[in-house]
Amino acid sequence: MTDTNETRWHTYEDADAVAQATANWILDAARIAVAEGRTFRLVLAGGRTPEKAYRLLSNVDTDWSTWEIFYGDERCLAIDDSERNSVMALRAWLEKVDIPASQLHPIPAELGAESAAAAYGDLISSALPFDLVLLGIGEDGHTASLFPGQEHSADELVHPVHDAPKPPPDRVSLSRNTLANTRRLLVLVTGDNKYNAVNAWKSGESIPVASIHPESGVDVLIDHAALKQ
After folding, report:
1. What is the mean pLDDT of residues 27-45?
2. What is the pLDDT of residues 142-183, one digit of tens each?
3. Residue 72 — very low, low, confident or very high, per pLDDT cuts 50/70/90?
4. For residue 145, what are the domain limits?
5. CATH number at residue 128
6. How far apart are CA 193 and CA 109, in angstroms?
7. Residue 2 falls inside a structural domain
8. Residue 1 lies in a domain
9. Which of 126, 121, 115 is nearest to 158 (CA)?
10. Most C-beta atoms within 10 A of its C-beta, which of 49, 91, 100, 173?
């Protein structure tokens, strides 16, 4: 069995190169899923680098009917708020391609953290395992809306999050175990402001991004700036 603690680091020149690599990894994972007779189940992340990758995907010609889209986390904001991950992904990519609307699954965070977490847990319970999960990393080592120092029930597929240290305070996040229930996990890291978090991760500190362990290990797509190379 693959060592679940294995982390593979892939270094790229800059954020644009990480975005292009991300798009390529997504398309490869989709091809594998479809070849094996599955709908391709992809979990999206928010952030600038994922957005760059989504814009690249908006120009791809593929059979979008085989794709199904989920989200790793969401802010509890109005359904059309531009700060929501689902709105960003829709504008950058999803509204420009022909993925059936019934296969797009935004987190209903406008309902409030508890109601949204319960509803999304019911939805994804039959979708696991995912084929590919995308994650970012914050300057403090958080990922999705899992923040240092916050504890959640290990029994939850999806967590209601309150008192987040970044606005808005109320959010919804897939749990560590749910994020790890995937055939492949990519962590996208760009910019010199991520160096301290990356160094903490490499040094073995217990930060949220370091606590997610799929059976297949983790692939980190990182640029030189985040490594200060």
Report:
1. 98
2. 999 999 989 888 889 999 999 999 999 999 999 999 999 999
3. very high
4. 7-227
5. 3.40.50.1360
6. 28
7. no
8. no
9. 121
10. 173
